[in-house]
Amino acid sequence: MNVTNLDSVTFGITDLAACRRFWTDFGLAESTADDGATVFSCKNGSSVVLRDSKDPKLPVPNEPGATQREAVFGVKSAADLTAIASELERDRPVRVDADGTVHARDPLGFGIAFRVAQRKPVMAPELKFNTPGRPDRINTRGAFHKSATPLEMTHTVFMIDDVDKIVPFYTERLGFIASDSYPGRGYFLRGGASNHHHDLFLLDVGKKRGFHHLAFELSSIHELFGGGLNMTRRGWRPALGPGRHPVSSCYFWYFHSPCGGAAEYDFDSDVVDERWVPGVHPQT
User: Fold this and answer.
1) Which of 125, 147, 150, 209 has a Cα at 20 to 30 A from 42?
2) How far apart are the first and last CA of the chain?
């Protein structure tokens, strides 16, 4: 099944004004959907959708308060949607929209959906750096960013409490691939047709089930620091970072979100294909 990317996520929220301010400061572009939902988009069209937590259109939450209610994954074609719907209908309720979007819930109750990917290609500007013995940016000042404008949304993270129940659901039934893992604790999964290191991370934090964070890729380390400093100036509380992940290689900076969980700026994440050798990492 040709899952290509994380295309959109929907949050059930309790404070629209705070959420609008957060995503505006984070660097996403605001618009309004045809049905009135508030949408914030990256440069490639991947999006965050905000709905009131009491909206009957939302999937039932699996944790209280503001949180992510549904993750929408992109696929290559309508044929992929048909295959996914057929697979899911074997043991769970499935709803298919007029546009073909397939909605269901995974074994732990997380809302998931699949649609033909709506993202569009984006390209970061070429980076030049001066390093000892390799000067590349000569007689030119370095780039500075006062804020960030995320290019794409890359992954979402679920806190899970039953590894054996949920990991095979994604890998054996929906064709996700484990790029890396902390056995028994964390699984970095990418769609079968994705080149992201991971589109979904399943993390066991100890008897807790819910949304953890949502990640966005930036164009440079300069933009990551510009965005992070802008968020702190505007009063948003850091959750973690700045730092660098040993798995997936990216630089990061996380901020607590009024939508629930956190939002992560990333830069220089691993890009993989079928030649990637999955790593099995010691638990930390």
Assistant:
1) 209
2) 32
Residue-level pLDDT, tens digit, the chain, 284 residues: 799 999 999 999 999 999 999 999 999 999 999 999 999 999 999 999 999 999 999 999 999 999 999 999 999 999 999 999 999 999 999 999 999 999 999 999 999 999 999 999 999 999 999 999 999 999 999 989 999 999 999 999 999 999 999 999 999 999 999 999 999 899 999 999 999 999 999 999 888 999 999 999 999 999 999 999 999 999 999 999 999 999 999 999 999 999 999 999 999 999 999 999 999 998 65
Task: Report the 10 Å Cβ neighbour count for 20.
Answer: 16
pTM, whole model, 2 decimals? 0.96
Measured CA to CA, the distance from residue 117 to residue 149 in angstroms comes to: 21
CA atoms within 13 A on the CB side of 135: 5
Place of tokens 């939508």: 259
Taking the C-alpha atoms of 29, 220, 187 and 106 in order, what is their torsion angle to the nearest 10 degrees?
Answer: 10
What residues does 73 pair with on adjacent strands? 6, 114
Residue 118 near residue 74 (C-beta atoms within 8 A): yes
Residue 132 CA to residue 130 CA, distance in Å, equals 7
Dihedral angle over CA of 73, 75, 77, 78, nearest 10: -30
> Is residue 194 classed as helix, strand or coil in its secondary structure?
coil
For the chain, the maximum distance between any two Cα atoms, rounded to a whole number of angstroms, is 64
